[in-house]
Amino acid sequence: MKVLIIDDEDDVLTMYKERLAADGFEVITADNGQKGLDAAFAAPPDVILLDIIMPKFNGLDVLQMLKSRSETKDIPVYLLTNLPEEASGEKARQLGAAGYLVKVNNEPSTVATLLKGLSSAQKRE
């Protein structure tokens, strides 16, 4: 399963990339919204982990753009952010997010478990 992580914090990108790669995921990273969109359109991943507060398009703008294009509209996008769900969760769901994960409540191992479940579900389809 190919995972695209879009986040402007290098430490976050490194931490999640190392953990997910160790669990067998192919991981691509982008450090701003524009690079994330470019990566998603060039080679659509199976799932996207997306921060909200970033330069060159915030995560909600990126989510809206991803859901507006035929090649990326069906990719599950999980917001992975430090913003509490009360701040942006409803807007994220309206835009088509598959889930909303607050970083402080979801360690990389928790996210890896979630993605393994998605991967298993895809294989059964």
Give structural notes:
The protein is 49% helix and 18% strand. The protein starts with a strand and ends with a helix. Helix 1 (10-22) packs across helix 5 and helix 2 runs parallel beside helix 3 (59-68). Helix 1 (10-22) links the parallel strand 1 and strand 2 (26-30). With 125 residues, the chain is of the alpha/beta class. It has a five-stranded parallel β-sheet with strand order 2-1-3-4-5, with helices on both faces. It has helices spanning 10-22, 33-42, 59-68, 85-95, 108-124, and strands at 2-6, 26-30, 47-50, 77-81, 99-102.
What's the layout of helices and strands?
Blueprint: E1 2-6, H1 10-22, E2 26-30, H2 33-42, E3 47-50, H3 59-68, E4 77-81, H4 85-95, E5 99-102, H5 108-124
Parallel strand pairs: 1-2, 1-3, 3-4, 4-5
Helix pairs in contact: 1-5, 2-3
